[in-house]
Design a protein that fits this description.
Helices cover 41% and strands 15% of the residues. With 353 residues, the protein is an alpha/beta fold. Strands 1-2-10-7-8-9 form a 6-stranded mixed sheet. Strands 5-4-3-6 form a 4-stranded parallel sheet, sandwiched between helices. α3 (61-74) runs parallel beside α4 (87-99) and α9 crosses α11. It binds ligand F0G. Residues 59, 61, 84-88, 155, 186-192, 241-242, 288, 290-291, 322-323 line the site of ligand F0G.
Length: 353
């Protein structure tokens, strides 16, 4: 039986027999072959989507949170706190509930997706909607944890990245030791790209995988501080999960880019929404808008002939889809349109055939 990432990857994680494991059996998410998208790419690419929306709270945050909350409990902490664009708060709320710990989350008022807000609220967390941005919320949370004994569970907490690196292990395990040539991933606070790189590097060193991928991070164009090289005071994007102007793991993301010979680039909201629809229409995968940034990034580079020099080899590409589409139902309906309302009569159905 799958009992979560700590149980499965225990030897690679900073836990001991004394660590109480708080788990929702997260991880072991599907690596889905994008057969329709791949077949349109002249047989040169194999695209595999790591669908992190299949985690218990619907995003990759569960991997980091199982470890962060377990370690907080081990260290005797009674309460946790984080700032969030939504998914971290949903995961913190759920794992804190299981651990019996108090939890406080600070979210940017009015700009987190509906599903995420519902999640944070239903677990009994104290939800504070800050009149400001995610970056403002994170600054306040850091101040609070310097003065009061609450454990910070944002990705500055090293256990978060340790947990999140297991997604890279799972990819190599699913591909039987063949690591991807390129890994595409959305970048917000820039923790996850760093965690994947750590995971890929550790596996490669232990000869559990055959190569190191180039890490390809993508920000939303209106919230691309790493690409622009400066803090963005008022980040804007429909991909609210990555609406961040001053990423906490900025330096780590830059090292990841350099060490992996990868890049950090940006895609427009329109490119993100196109990729979001392609995934839903062509592959049957419903992810949230921010997650589609990874495919938007791949398609952008493909159109720019970025992969020209790889003509002869088949290229294996993995792309992280960070969160479930149900997180943001408003965006789905805005994008796809409302249903057709009809009278309960057969003729009315036939009209639409
Ligand atoms: N995709 C989704 C769906 C996210 O929720 C996030 C981050 C990212 C991508 C970017 O990951 O921050 O590690 O670079 N969400 C955080 C939150 C900020 O509060 O839920 P990152």
């Amino acid at each position: 039986m799958w009992k979560g990432i700590i149980d499965h990857y225990r030897e690679f994680l900073p836990v001991s027999d004394r660590t109480p494991i708080v788990t929702l059996n997260e991880g072991n998410t599907p690596l889905i072959f994008g057969k329709n998208i791949s077949s349109r790419l002249d047989g040169k690419f194999k695209l595999f989507f790591k669908f992190e929306g299949a985690n218990p709270t619907g995003s990759f945050k569960d991997r980091g949170m199982t470890l962060a909350i377990s370690k907080a409990l081990e260290e005797g902490s009674k309460a946790v706190i984080c700032a969030s664009t939504g998914n971290t708060s949903a995961a913190a709320a759920a794992f804190a509930a299981q651990a019996g710990m108090k939890c406080m989350v600070l979210i940017p008022n009015g700009s987190i997706a509906l599903g995420k807000l519902a999640q944070a609220l239903i677990h009994g967390t104290i939800v504070l909607a800050v009149d400001g941005s995610f970056d403002d919320a994170l600054r306040v949370v850091k101040e609070v944890t310097q003065k009061y004994p609450l454990t910070l569970v944002n990705s500055i907490n090293p256990y978060r990245l340790e947990g999140q690196k297991t997604a890279a292990f799972e990819i190599c395990d699913s591909l039987e030791g063949r690591a991807p040539d390129f890994h595409f991933i959305p970048v917000g606070n820039a923790g996850n790209i760093s965690a994947y790189w750590q995971g890929y590097s550790e596996y490669f060193k232990l000869k559990k995988s055959d190569r190191l991928p180039r890490m390809m991070g993508f920000q939303a164009a209106g919230a691309a501080p790493i690409v622009e090289g400066h803090v963005i005071e008022k980040p804007e994007t429909i991909a609210t999960a990555i609406r961040i102007g001053n990423p906490a793991n900025w330096q780590k993301a830059l090292s990841t880019k350099e060490e992996s010979k990868g890049l950090i680039d940006k895609v427009t909201d329109q490119e993100i929404l196109e990729a979001y629809q392609i995934l839903a229409h062509d592959e049957g995968i419903f992810c949230e808008p921010a997650s589609a940034t990874s495919l938007a990034g791949f398609l952008k580079l493909h159109h720019q002939n970025f992969f020209e020099d790889r003509k002869k080899e088949e290229t294996l590409i993995t792309l992280t889809l960070t969160g479930h589409g149900l997180k943001d139902p408003d965006r789905a309906i805005k994008t796809a349109g409302e249903p057709h309302v009809i009278k309960p009569r057969m003729e009315e159905v036939i009209k639409w055939m």
